[in-house]
């Protein structure tokens, strides 16, 4: 079991230390529909017509976790030797924690890095439903049934490999005030099998229907062969394959797996910490994030029809995007610290927002704008209140108007 510190928005999907999106323009008043600022309203809308979306256009594969949130007290934390604000992988001493937690007043949400991003992309798109497909492994148990229900409620087309050797993976969020102590039990998420799920004809047909693919780096520790099959399919058919560096330890301890997949990567995501670790392992001999983006973009690539795009976030600092022969920066949306309600999942939301536009073949600047918007919304709301929100930003409004026409 790894005991390294990793970015929680991937293995620990309910938190973000990645793009804590603090952004370039103030949002409007808090309401069920977030209002655009006057500056946003003045911006010229893109003239490119969005691609027509159909079910299963966006494909994700990763580690599904059932997020379980409950308010606890200090005695509960002390009982399981938890810190108020921490992220750890579950050990044997934490097994009883999950049983005890579900006896409290809990909230359940479909989680895991990739599933979170697919869920947010679908939320940004709104209609049609089931644009996003998700593959992963769960157990044949109560948590698995809840996870299936929550995925359905999020309007994503989840097809899980169900096995009875390990229980469904889960992530306990033990809340005390503004603090969250996260305990992740990957369990069944580690048991995905290419030959027993991905290779099945009915499942592979869903892969063939997709035009954009996204996988978080943590899945490199689970099923490299599954990732390579999907990545090669994307490359051979001139589709878009996206990968997230996910955590420094992926770049360090799973470097060989990562670099086997890299030639097929069209869009590479990461944050500044992961970028630094990646640069060190690849002997880039630079700590400058723009240079790292350029060097990562220039790594060997299988499908030469598409130049690689590298997207690196830096917390409250500007997002760096390397494309073609240039590197651009995009300021993130500003937000007052008092307006931050819940940072859980903001990193995955950034990717989800980006993917929601990418799958519609929108320009890269529009993809970044959507990414910043989605993450900004997420940190303003507890997850239980997010599903009542309707995305209302420049791109979404334009899409809706065109659909009506």
TrEMBL record:
Query: Which pathway does this polypeptide act in?
Result: Purine metabolism; AMP biosynthesis via salvage pathway; AMP from adenosine: step 1/1
Ranges of compositional bias, category Polar residues: 46-55
Q: Which GO terms describe its biological process?
A: adenosine salvage; AMP salvage; purine nucleobase metabolic process
Q: Which GO molecular function terms does the record list? A: adenosine kinase activity; ATP binding
Cofactor section: Mg(2+)
Q: Which GO terms describe its cellular component?
A: cytosol; nucleus
UniProt lists the family membership as follows: Belongs to the carbohydrate kinase PfkB family.
Q: Looking at the record's lineage, which domain of life comes first? A: Eukaryota
Q: In which residue ranges is the amino acid composition biased (Basic and acidic residues)?
A: 35-45
- Catalytic site positions: 348
Q: E.C. number, please?
A: 2.7.1.20
Q: What is this protein called?
A: adenosine kinase
One Pfam annotation reads PfkB
Keywords assigned: ATP-binding, Kinase, Magnesium, Nucleotide-binding, Purine salvage, Transferase
List the residue ranges of the region (Disordered).
Answer: 26-55
Ranges for domain Carbohydrate kinase PfkB come to: 80-382
